[in-house]
Amino acid sequence: MSAFVDRPLEDQIAQWRTFVRRRQAMHGSDVEELEAHLRDELGALADAGLADDEAFLVAVKRMGNLDAISLEFAQAHSERLWKQLVLPAERAEEPSRTARIEPLVVLALAVAAGVAIKVPALFGLDIARGDELFFFRNMGLFVLPLLTLYFVWKRDMAASRAVWLAGPFVAAAVFANAYPFRERGDTLVLTILHLPIALWLVVGCAYVRGRWFEGSGRMDFVRFTGELVIYYALIALGGGVFTAFTVMMFQAIGIVPEWFVAGWLIPCGGTGAVIVAAWLVEAKQSVVENMAPVLTRLFTPLFTLLLLAFLATMGWTGRPIDIGREVLIGFDLLLVLVVALVLYAASARDPLAEPDFFDRLQLLLIVSALAVDGLALMAIASRISELGFTPNRVAALGENLILLVNLAWTAWLYGRFVLRRTVFAALEAWQVAYLPIYSLWAALVVIVFPVLFHFE
Amino acid sequence: MEMSKDLVAASATPLVLAILAEGESYGYAIIKRVAELSGGDLQWTDGMLYPVLHRLERQGCVSAKWAEAETGRKRKYYRITRDGRKLLDAQRQQWHVVDTILRGAWMKACPA
Q1: Is the domain of A308 the same as that of A371?
Q2: A228 and A298, same structural domain?
Q3: CA-to-CA distance for A238 and A231, rounded, in angstroms?
Q4: Of A406, A408, A419, A411, which is closest to residue A362 (Cα–Cα)?
Q5: A268 and A188: one domain?
Q6: Is B73 part of the contact surface with chain A (CB cutoff 8 Å)?
Q7: Is residue A267 located within the same domain as residue A360?
Q8: CA–CA separation, A413 vs A418, rounded Å?
Q9: Is the ipTM of this structure higher than 0.85?
């Protein structure tokens, strides 16, 4: 209490008020009510002849232990301990023009994404009737330009700068549709898988307002991407329930709404939901704890255990890795996962904190992942001549190499950081600097591979 | 007199409702009235009254409104509702039963 003494009364009350406000379970009006009480008490005590600071001490004492009171408040209003997603327009005292029309812009863009995917139907292409390959290879083009447009608007990007972002989309449309792919060939599948990854960099450019190399924007984009995936998955779950009810109810009256579900609900909802999810991530970033780092914390120990158990089992039994058709892709995905765990742990870490147990665990995870991948690569190298260079295998090898380089250098930096020879920022800088490489490789696969492998 | 915490907590609701049944009031005045009624025997921690009031407000037993006090500051006034009166009646009957039983038991245990 000594901090309260020897100040003018109003100062003391103001300090007390800030002290109470810090409690999550007490809202503004509760604090006002308690303050009114405190002032009544002060008035009565002053009338009884106490000096200001004496009266203040007595009044605060009578008010009681704030921890205990706030616990009671929390029980009376348990919902207050759950942070609610309040959209910024309602929260700010004077909503800006952007905040006020944002829901309308988002709605318009989401509807536009839903419409975009139905435009090819005007030319006789139907996603529900055999033309799905056309839709798959253009998937990124239906929704990512609109997502980019959203960020161009939201970040208030200059039109002269934003125009450049259209270039990659036009190029992507050309490469996806002008190449004479063999029906269901490997290179077509590679294009389908890699085009969205290449275009995601364009979204990132819009997200950071065209200033890719400045400030912390790239790490924010990483955070955004992680949360977007989680929000999209949640919306998709809700969409699945909605779809199930649609089918169930109409079937009950003998109508099978398959044309509507497969031709309209899923494609239009699926594209529109990307925009809505992006908006939710933007709106809630400061309200709700980020989910991706929480998942990272949960799964880093589990994956470390898995990798160590795998290495131990291999060493114990002496079984070699059997290189079947798709094993390499499996190990690629493992590296992707480890990179993601490292990236999202870094995204939530205080760069100034000292190395702790979790950092050592991450280092162990990376090193064991490198060991496992090294074993897989050795198994492949010994058989590559008899297996031959198919497009899939070359792409998978290239990706493996890219991820391996990233993780090897990350392990080096992490090791130095744990030994306190370098700062964590070096590791973060390396990770964000590496981001464009993934997209550039994906672009390479889309542009060069079909030609290289004769559109097989 | 030092009262047990549980007893203070249990008596808070009927006491607050009874005081509000006398007429509209606000937090500080309710505390003063409790001190007056108990002759100083029942000491509440002032801050603990408000969660009780808010819980009653949420249950619809009291209604609240902000108004300007004679001092010129804003103050939150509470008023008992019909549900609040029903709750008060029910609680009074329960306390009466408990009181009767305890009297009977004590009469036998320590006939003074």
Answers
A1: yes
A2: no
A3: 11
A4: A411
A5: yes
A6: yes
A7: no
A8: 9
A9: no
